[in-house]
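Input.
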Amino acid sequence: MKTRIAVAALLFAASSGAWAFHCPVDMKKIDEAMAAAPKLSMAQMEEVKKLRAEGEALHKAGDHQASVDTLAKAMKILGI
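Output.
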């Protein structure tokens, strides 16, 4: 029983670490899409920039799920 709990804890820890590496990939996708001069309104561009900055701040604070969720909103606006 202790072995199962240890394995479950290890798997959980490994999976939560994966979120930490997902955020920078999403930020890179957003940066590349913005560099390609997407056809967005000024309001959309500002929203993407705001969400991108917020996602990075959340990532640096260790809140990776919130970062991924926030960056997903920016990617949706960009169509990626």
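The chain has a mean pLDDT of 85.
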